[in-house]
């Protein structure tokens, strides 16, 4: 309906802003990243928008960049992710980092986002990893190191389980199921064996 709204930033609330356009104040739900970005702009601001209409409600969601709006729209295509959860994710994790997390299939970091459990994180990764824009992916050095360590431990645990006679598919399923709750590789193997013995 609207590609963007341009006007003066009149008010900043918690997870929303009010933009005045010709004496009409538009309440626009937005992310912490967009709020921080818009605060730095003098005069009129441009907010790229998406209107969500439900039976009992009409809300405007908007962002300071087209890329963040695109990410919001992508998140809402995931089964079980509504506009409020998508906004919570974008407020919890800066967009570039979020893309990096999805590409790296890092469920652990994704569960730190507001409203996202392990199964939801896995679903987001599964449905979006081939759709996100790799050009905007940002990988913090600590995140890269953490992901490499977790992946190395997971591979080592899978190899150990295969050596014990399990198929690679069984071993991977068990390790993926238990690894987020484990502190080290020995824990991963023990809990994976317990999972496989059920």
TrEMBL record:
It comes from the Bacteria. It is found in: Cytoplasm. Its main location: cytoplasm. Residues 73-92, 108-127 form the Helix-hairpin-helix DNA-binding motif class domain. Residues 152-198 are annotated as: Domain III. The keyword Calcium does not apply. Has three domains with a flexible linker between the domains II and III and assumes an 'L' shape. Domain III is highly mobile and contacts RuvB. Belongs to the RuvA family. Homotetramer. Forms an RuvA(8)-RuvB(12)-Holliday junction (HJ) complex. HJ DNA is sandwiched between 2 RuvA tetramers; dsDNA enters through RuvA and exits via RuvB. An RuvB hexamer assembles on each DNA strand where it exits the tetramer. Each RuvB hexamer is contacted by two RuvA subunits (via domain III) on 2 adjacent RuvB subunits; this complex drives branch migration. In the full resolvosome a probable DNA-RuvA(4)-RuvB(12)-RuvC(2) complex forms which resolves the HJ. This is Holliday junction branch migration complex subunit RuvA. It comes from Marinisporobacter balticus.
